[in-house]
Q: What sequence folds into this?
């Protein structure tokens, strides 16, 4: 009799535990923030897009860095003005003038933009 009760309890336990098992595979996809996401969080953000990444300036700790300007990588080719942020593309900025020069630096993920004799540091916004 004890073996029968033990067998029933084990069977019930197995069914109970297997019911708690999540058999779905969950996939997490991390993507870098786009202009739409950044501007929805801060409509006054000063951003540009370069090589598929959004860069933002006026970040205090970045402005305190002593960066070395390396070679020119390009210039701002388009101005984004409060339209559909999905249309934001490489070479565009929302507060920089067309023609502003973009330079690489001695630090990965940071660009220097120069215009009107002024330099601004832009940090790449990446997930992770």
A:
């Amino acid at each position: 009799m004890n073996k029968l009760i033990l067998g029933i309890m084990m069977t019930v336990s197995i069914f109970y535990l297997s019911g708690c098992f999540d058999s779905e595979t969950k996939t997490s996809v991390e993507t870098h923030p786009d202009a739409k996401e950044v501007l929805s969080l801060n409509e006054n953000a000063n951003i540009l897009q370069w090589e598929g990444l959004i860069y933002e300036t006026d970040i205090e700790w970045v402005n305190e860095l002593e960066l070395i300007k390396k070679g020119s990588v390009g210039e701002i080719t388009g101005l984004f003005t409060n339209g559909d942020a999905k249309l934001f593309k490489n070479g565009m900025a929302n507060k920089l003038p067309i023609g502003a020069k973009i330079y690489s630096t001695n630090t990965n993920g940071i660009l220097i933009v120069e215009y009107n004799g002024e330099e601004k540091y832009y940090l790449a916004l990446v997930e992770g």
Q: What stands out?
A: Strands lie at 47-50, 53-56, 69-75, 78-79, 92-93, 101-105, 110-115, 118-125. The chain has one domain: 28-125. The helical segments are 2-19, 35-41, 60-63. The chain has a mean pLDDT of 87.
